[in-house]
Structures are given as structure tokens and as C-alpha cells.
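Minutes, project check-in

Agenda point 3 was the complex the collaborators sent over. CS summarized: three entities, 947 residues total, and the question is how they sit relative to each other. Sequences were read into the notes so everyone works from the same version.
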Amino acid sequence: MPYEALDFYDVDSLLTEEERMVRDMVRDFVDQDVIPNIEHACREGVFPDEWRVTLGEMGVLGAPLEGYGCPGLSYTAYGVICRELERGDSGLRSFASVQGSLAMYPIWDFGSEEQKQNYLPKMASGEWIGCFGLTEPDYGSNPGDMITKAEDMGDHYLLNGAKMWITNGTIAQLAVVWAKLDGVIRGFIVEKDDPGFSAPEMKGKHSLKASVTSELVFQDCKIPKDRILPGVKGLRGPFSCLNNARYGISWGAVGAAQACFDSAKEYSLSRIQFTHPIASYQLVQNKLAWMLREITKAQLLAYHLGQKKDAGTWIPEHISLAKMNNVDIALEIAREARDIHGANGILDEYCIMRHMANLESVKTYEGTHDIHNLIIGRHITGIQSFTREL
Amino acid sequence: MTIAVLLKQVPDTTAKITVSNGRVDENAVSKWSFSPYDEYALEAALQLKESMGGELVAITAGPARCEKLLRDAAAVGADNLVHISAENINDFDSTQMQKLLAAAVEKSGSSVVFCGKQAADTNSGSTGPGVAELIGASCITMVSEVISDSGGYLATRPSSSGHEKVAVSAPCVFAFDKGVVEMRRPNVRGIMMAKKKPIETWSIEELGLDLGTSGISIDSHSPPAEKPPGQKFEGADSVSTVVGKLRDEANVI
Amino acid sequence: MQCTVIAETVGDSLHPITSQLIGAASSLGASPIVVVPGGIGSEEAASIDGVSKVVSVVGDCFSTFDGGAWATALSPQCNGVIITGATSNGREVAARIAAKRGVPIIQDVTGLSDGITITRPIYSGKAVETTTVSGDCVITLRANAFDSAGSGGSAAVNVVDQSVDVSIAVKEAINKATERLDVSEADIIISGGRGIGQKENFSHLEEVADIIGAAVGASRAVVDEWGMPHSMQVGQTGKTVTPSLYIAVGISGAIQHLAGMRSSKYIVAINKDPEAPIFGVADYGIVATWEDAVPALKAALSSL
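CS then shared the predicted structure for the full assembly.
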């Protein structure tokens, strides 16, 4: 059956006509190009390069950025794009999140005029892929203690250290790398062929299999002086990128949840046990009703957050709540949907198990579920509880 | 040169059709789309325009919801948008619709017209040839491809032995079957331009028409007859019986 | 009631739909005039029961199909209620004639009764429209929806020479493409599953497909195990198809397969296991081995 997006409260009617046209465009791409090919991509463990090309042609990369070949859409439109992409696969949405929010955004916000003109147009078109190096093998939730450092060598910078869990790393032409220069976190643009830089792919994932995850290794990596991002110092740099990416995830998770709901509904109506479709049994209806309830709430959360982003009335804690909640319910919905599908739910004939495994990563990356709780806890109490050093 | 594309908004072919009070219930339609053959016509018209220059005007007739169709056409490259509007437009018969569309084609100054071979709601196939008759144009139906050729056009259509390329010159109407190229997907740039593009609304009066009264009255719409429950036959001897039923009961071969 | 039937021709004889059009006209109480484009099969038309007169319209214009030219040539010979076949040429000529004469047109009619009350499918058969038309009009009738008139008549044949300019010129004939339709766009699909034994046996399904212009599909089991192209796969991870007719041969009907084809308008299942779940969705189930049923299917379809 064709996909009919669950939208119980008709939340999409609140979108502008332009936002709905963007939605339909991306939805069509996902139906035509992504869903028929995603299982194969997962089995092969590759991100299909055609998707990069099409995302560029559609003009959705760096959606909310303006100028330098970027589309200048609303943050709400960016959210809708993430939702539709993640209905296909979280790996696909991750590609777009990293490219737009984590690689293009810091150049757009903190880069020099030359950097913007040099990099942004070819990243918006998809010609160049970007990645974002913050997390390190030993520093995940606690990036402030990162080890990677930059040294000013007079006519160039020298980078040393390693980053881990980097989406797009191996296929990227550039990396926005956060490293300490004289003890202060700064952003640097590292290009693929810079001497001393390598990006080996991390293999063996049971999650986000159609997405490339890499290490970034810097061994006396030499980069020109004009590659430092002049506009920001400290953790504010990477955190502003993460705010945008997390915002997109709060929408994206709704897409994954909608896909699982859609499949569970179809399956339960056609699967007959004890002479009746299992959809006619109360236990199954209870599960479906719960899914609809949580998806509807998540949609309202995402939409309202989008309005706040567009109005500039948001605070990072708003984003934490939406990211945490929406990924959480999407993962639970995937698990319930798997249950409704019975044994069939583990097959790649259905999207369920793939979404479930993907969402385990999404729950952890871009601020873990628990860290977002602590961010909100700090907001409520005024007391940070990340460390013991009170 | 101006190329006109006649577009119709119909319930998506995957949408459920429900009948209430003797009429198909438009409010129950979950999704409206381009009539599928119109999409091929639009794509072919865009390609013709790109190969030889000129302007492409997208024309639709119908209630206010149809403006979405024009925006979608603009997003993939239609230059001008025309909405023929009338209060009771859903009640017009094919003859009246053809008059409206023919008048709009003439007002737009188009000498080449693209449309689908039939709409996915009425499934008739009268519009293309009917409009051609009214504007004094040649018409080729069941077209899959059109290219410009020595001042005229070459259109591919089916023939008894496969396909044939036929030459025709303007004024002409091409009524499209499934074309060789699917309609392109829009991009964000196109969508943002489409938003700014004005839609011209033409009324019956502006088109200077007297549509008269329809000779056809719709008595009712009804759901299709329930299919009989599945029938099961034993043995290969029953194959000819089933084939007969497929032809006479099901009407599918 | 005055009524004109425009004959449909194929090659150098009448198309069988012609006697159905005449039968339908007779059922309305009319003794139709039959207008024959290009004069092909005029004598045959004259021998059909209920025909009052045959007008054989001849002229250069009938060597190429140009709906506009044909309508111009034929229209002067038509009167009253004009009936053609709802074929692609028939629909085009009908629409032209209706526009030329300024009379209503109703296409693809499947039921007619006095009045004239007309029924026809709309929304690709998802609804039925009933209309009443008064006065002169043009109606096109769907093939095989009306009983044929018998033979035994002996109407007079008048020959009219009508010269009309043709505005279309055939420049190049392209012979039938041999490539097979894709399952996602075919109106008829015949699919095979594990029950047909081995990959090579798909050739039998292909022969059936050639007769009726169908696409050939496959279940996931045989795509995976026999290395059939993924593009043929119908089902949950393959194509979701909604043809008018889906013929499942040797497919048991796993839920994943049903998900891809259960919305087909008509489903025929051929399976030797009477308990196969595919029979649960079939409109016409045939309990037989494919070895027996497929040759019979070939023979029956060839003789249509």
C-alpha cells in the first residue's frame, strides 16, 4: 500500500504552502529512490552516492541557511525535510543533518567571507560532502576535555589527535574539526588531502548501516592558517551546530515512528490469526492507539519548536526536550511495531527492525537521552549534575 | 512561441473513492494530484520549450483547490499560470469544459497544446481532440514523445505494427499516453519561485463565452457492483471457463 | 430514434466490436445506419442484423489515421445518436464529431437503456456514473460490454467519396519493441513462484504474457533462490502492483507477497494445493498443476 502519513491532528495543515511543497518533493524522493533501495544499501553497508546527488539537486542541503547558494528555507521546512528523510532511513537523515547543520552551518556562521564563498556553494549542491569532528574515543558527553590540539607553527597549524563516531568521515571532502589551540576550543577546516589526515571507516555496525561512520586521525596534520574559523571560540561553536542538528532529529524521529506505525497498521490489518485480522484484537488496537497518541504529541512538539526556531524564541533546553522525547517514543514505537509484526518483524522485508536499530544510535548521538534529561534538570533546578565537582 | 499545457487535478489514483448521497464525495479524498497522463504531457512540454525556447502556460479549470496544481507546475518550470474559475465548474459537461479550455488556449496565444489522453477521474479522453476541433488544430492522441522538426513537430504514437513518428505543424494538440520521461521532481529553487508567481484567474465572462445548458444530466454516482466472492475451480479443464469470465464478467482481457 | 454506428476496422476487415455497437443500437430500438471509414468491410457490415443502411465513406484521408480529417469526412453521414467503439481511434473521432456538431459526448459506456440512460465506470472503476442524455449525442462503447448483433441482414451499401485534407504525415514506422513491460506499469501481470519448479519454466509464463501483453512477475522466493531480476519481484520488498488482472502461478501467497498484489482488480490463482492462502484473495482460483493449467491458459487466451 502507498504510504499515508499519519497526521491525526492535521498538524501539516499548519505548514505554509511552500513547506508542504518541499515536503511532497522529499517524500517523493524517499518513496521513489530510497525505500526501494535502502535494504540493499544496508546489506552492503554503503551510503548510495546517487542520494548525495539528488539531495543536492533538490536543493535541501543546508536548508535554513541563506546566501552562498543555500536555500534559505524556514527552520520548520528544515524539520519537515528531516522528518521525510528519516521516514526512509535515519542514516539518510544523518547524512543531511551532518552536511547542513554540522558542516555547513559553522562555516556559514563562524567562517570568513572567503571560507563561505569557497565552501558553501559546493556543499549546498552536494558536490562536496562535509563531516564534523567533535567526539573523541574517550570524550563523548564531555567534549570540553577533548585531547585533540592545534599548534600555531607560524605559517600553518599543526593538528594532532583523533575523533571518533564521525558520520560521513570517509566520504567527506572536508571536516570541521574542533581542537584546542592554546587551551581554547577552536574550529578548523581540514580538507581530505591535507598531509597527516586520514579517515578510516568504522565497520561492523548493527545500526545506521547505510551511513558511513569513521574515525578522523590527525598525525602532525598540517593545514594553512586561513582554515581556522575566525568567528567563534570555546564550546559555544560546536554546541550551536549541535542545537540545529538536534532540532532536526526531533523531527526526524517522527518520520521513523510514522514509518513503523504505517507498517504495523498495514500488517495488523492483513495478518490473520485465529480466523481474524490481528488488528481486530484489543491488545493490538491498544498498541496502535498508543503509537498514534505518542506520534501526535511528538508532531505537535516538533512543529511548535519549529515555530520557536523561526521566531528566535527558543532556548537550547527546548531542543533537548524535543530531541529526547521524540527519539524515545520513536524507539518505543519501533519496538511495539516489531511486536505486532511477530517474527516477520525481524525480516528486512519490513522497515521495523532497521528503524529500531537505527534509533538506538539516534538515542545516543547528538547528546544522549540521559544528558538531555540532565540539561533539563539543570534548567529546572539551576544545579548542574553532569559532574561531581559541584 | 507559447505552449499551453492543460492540467487537471484529480484524486490521487491510490486514493479511496467514496460515494455519499449519490455523488463521489470530494471531501473524503485524502490526496489530490495531477492526472497521471497530464504529468507526462507537462514534462514533454517542458522539454520542448527547453529545446526551442518560448513560454509555457499551464491552464487548469476547476475549483479553488486546483491552484495547488498550478503552483506545482510552476515549481517544475511553467512560466505562466491560468486558473479558469466558475462557481459551478464541477457540474460542467465535457462539451462545456472543452469550450472553456479552447477559449483559454486562444486567449493565451498558444499554438501548441499538450494534455493527457484522458483524465483519471472521468476516464473519457474527449478533451484533447475536442479542444483541437474548437480551435481548428490538428490533434495526435496516445503520444509518448514530441520533438521539434523542421518548423513542425514529430510525435511518436502507437501503430498497428508498433509505433510510428508522425509529422504535424501548428496549431496542434498532443494528447499524451504514458510518455518516455517521468515528470521531473521540483527543487527548492523552483518551489520558491513558484510561490511568487501570480496565478491569473479567468472567468467565463472574461473568456466571452456562453456555455449554454448541458445536454447531459448526472443521475447518480454509485459504488461499483460488489465483486462476487472468490470462485474456486477444480482442474485445468476449468481454465477456459475462467478465461471466459475474465472477458465477460470482469472485462479485463 | 435515429442512430448511426461508426464501424471500427482492423487491417482489412471489421473489428468485432462493430457488431457489438450495432447490437447495442438495436437494444435501444434503433435500426442504425453504419458508416464505414475507408469502406473496409462494408459488405460484412451490411450482413449484420438490424442495420438499415451502410454508408461506405472512401477517400485518400483514410490511409493515415487523422482523427480530425476522419471526423470531417464521416460527420456529414451521421445522424441522431452516434455510436463508436471506445477504442483509442474511436474515442478521438467521437470527440471530434461531438465538438464539431456541438452535441454532448459520453465515452467508455458499459450500460445503455432507453431514455437514454447510460452507465459508465469512472475513477478507473472505483465508481459508476449514471447519466441521462436527451437529443442527439455521441456515445462510445467499451469492448465486450454489449452483446453482438447476429448476422443475416442484407442492408444496402452506399459509397460516398469524401476528399478531406490530412494534416498528419507518417514519417517513420518503428516496429514493436520486444522488451517486456515492467510489472509496475503493466495492466496485466502473470507471476510465478516456487511452485513452478525451476527458473527455466518461466518461459511458459512469458509465452502467456506475450499473448495478452502482460508483464511477468515473481515472488521473493524465486527471486532470491533462482536469481531472477529484482525488478520482477512483487511483494513487500518488491513492487506493489495494482493491475487490472494478476495471475499467480505456483505462488502460495505468503503475507509479504499478498502485500504487493492484493489491490489488483482481479486475481487469478493457479496452484495445486487447494489450501494455499493465495486462494483467499483470488477472484478465480484454479486448483491444478501449472503443467496442466498454463498450456490450457495459453490455448484459451490465443483463441479469444
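Noted in discussion: Chain A has a mean pLDDT of 97.
Follow-up: revisit at the next meeting once the mutant set is ready.
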